[in-house]
Amino acid sequence: MPKKLKLSPEDFDQECTTVWSFPRRWNWATHNSKYRWNWSPEVVRNLILRYSKEGDFLLDPMIWGGTTAIEAKLLNRNLLCYDINPEAIKLTESLLDFEIDSETSSEWQVKIKVKKHNATKKNKDLKDESIDFVLMHPPYVDIIKYSDWIKWDLSQIHDINKFCDEMEKVAKESYRVLKTWKFCAVLMWDTRREKMYQPLAFKVMERFLKVGFALKEDIIKVQHNCKATWFWVQKSKDYNFLLIMHEHLFIFKKLLQKKT
Predict the structure, then answer these.
(1) Residue 2 in domain
(2) Which residues span the domain enclosing 142?
(3) Which of 51, 70, 81, 93 is the most exposed place for a label (fewest CB within 10 A)?
(4) From CA 79, how far away is CA 71, in angstroms rounded?
(5) What are the DSSP calls for the chain, one per residue?
(6) pLDDT confidence tier of residue 260, bands split at 50, 70 and 90
(7) What percentage of the chain has pLDDT greater than the value 90?
C-alpha cells in the first residue's frame, strides 16, 4: 500500500535572490539525503514553482536519486524522467510510492514516466517544442562516479573538454524539445586539477549558450555539510588552496529564433 507521509517542507519560502543557501536539508515525502547523487529538494521545489505551472510537462534527463520526480508529483506537474543507470530508474519508481492527501488528490492529474535513456542521445518519442521546463543535475565529471560499468555514464569522464562535448549534446537535445520562451535549469559545480581551479560550470554554460540558449540567471548555491570537509580543511591549509563551497545554478531561456 502506498505510504502516507508528510508531504511539504516546514517554513518554506520561495527564493528571490541569486544566492541560495539551505543549511538544513528537509526530508519531506520520500526525499532522502543519503543518496549522494541527488540534488536538494529545496532547489527543485524552488525551480518548479518559479519556472512552471500546474499541469505543465517537465523533463529531467538525469533523474539520479528521484528528487525531481517526487517534487513533480507533489506539485502537480507531469514529468518525463530518464537515466542511463537502471538502478536510478528502480530507485525513482520506488520513491514515487506515496499518496497525495485524499482531500486534494482529485485535483491531481499527474503523469510521471520513468524510462532508461541516454541524455546525450535524441529521444525519438519527444517531439520538437513539447516540453514546458527542463531541469537537470548532471554529474561533475568523475568527482562522484555513479557507476563503473555503464559505457555512456558521464561520471566516468575525467577529461573536462570531453565531458563538455557530451554536455553540449544534452544541451542541444534540451533546446530541441523545449518550447520557445520556456526555461532550462542546470546545476553544476567547479573542480580543481593539480590544485588549480577549473571553472567547469562556466565551461558547461558556454555549451548551452552555443546551442542557442540565453542566460536568464546565474544563481550561486552555497554548499553545506560536505562529506570529508574536516579532512580537506587541513589539506587546504597545508597546500594553500581554498575549498569550493558553492555551485552554479544556471537558468537558461529559449528565445524566439530570428528568421534567416
Answers:
(1) no
(2) 19-253
(3) 93
(4) 10
(5) --B----S-TT-----SSEEE-SS----TT--TT-TTS--HHHHHHHHHHH--TT-EEEES--TTSHHHHHHHHTT-EEEEEES-HHHHHHHHHHT-BPPPTTTGGG----EEEEE--TTS--TTSPTT-EEEEEE----TTSS-S-SS-TT-GGG---HHHHHHHHHHHHHHHHHHEEEEEEEEEEEE-EEETTEEE-HHHHHHHHHHHTT-EEEEEEEEEP-S-TTHHHHHHHHHHHT-----EEEEEEEE-PPPPP-
(6) very low
(7) 64
| Amino acid sitting at position 192 | R
63 with 92: CB under 8 angstroms? yes
| Cross-strand bridge partners of residue 133 | 58, 183
Q: Per mean pLDDT, which range of 66-80, 147-161, 241-255 is the poorest?
A: 147-161
* Residue 55 maps to a domain: yes
Q: Is residue 163 scored above 80 in pLDDT?
A: yes
CATH number at residue 77: 3.40.50.150
Domain count, the chain: 1
Q: Is the pLDDT of residue 213 over 70?
A: yes
